[in-house]
Amino acid sequence: MLKKILSFVLVLVSLNACTQEKAPITGIDGSAIPPAFANFPDMPFPNQAYLDLENTRALGSGSNWIGSLVFSVPYSPSEVFDFYMSEMPKLNWVEVATVRARVSQMTYIQGHRAVQILIEMDDSDSSLVTVTAIPNENVVRKGS
């Protein structure tokens, strides 16, 4: 348990060390990912996204991170929804359910993890996105 708490603190410290208020996240178009976001290579991020450090809580890195990433993007919720519909399968995420609404919800699985993406209007021309990753122990295994 202490090891998990220390890992969580290290992730938060690295996020704070690399950014002041908001940190830019690049898209998956091949442009460089700031060091703080290299911990989440299994997730696509829209260009011009800015991480909300006060509301982001993540533990771990690579394809094993869990927690919630909260960020804003200068795109409509519909554009963000379309981005994730297009980009998640490219990173081998399998769609479980999607609901396009005032607050859109998208759920994907990959291996032993599940991700829920919530997309809502932030202000007149931007969206607030929350990506939450959790362990998914309900994986159907061959021969079970």
Number of separate domains: 1
Regarding quaternary structure, how should these chains be classified? Answer: single chain
CATH architecture: 2-Layer Sandwich
CATH class identity: Alpha Beta
Q: What do we call the CATH topology? A: TATA-Binding Protein
- Count of alpha/pi helices: 2
Strand element count: 8
Which consecutive residue ranges, at least 5 long each, have pLDDT under 50? 16-26
- Integer average pLDDT: 79
The largest sheet is: 8 strands, antiparallel
**What would you call the shape?**
globular
Rg is: 15 Å
Q: What fraction of the residues are assigned to beta strands by DSSP? A: 35-45%
SSE layout:
Layout: H1 2-18, E1 22-25, E2 49-52, E3 57-59, E4 66-73, H2 77-87, E5 94-99, E6 103-110, E7 113-123, E8 126-135
Antiparallel strand pairs: 1-2, 2-4, 3-4, 4-8, 5-6, 6-7, 7-8
Describe the structure in your own words:
The chain is α+β, with helices and mostly antiparallel strands and 144 residues long. The protein is built from 2 helices and 8 strands, in the order H-E-E-E-E-H-E-E-E-E. Strands 1, 2, 3, 4, 5, 6, 7 and 8 form an 8-stranded antiparallel β-sheet that branches. The longest helix is centred in the N-terminal third of the chain and has 17 residues, at 2-18. It is globular and about 40 Å long.
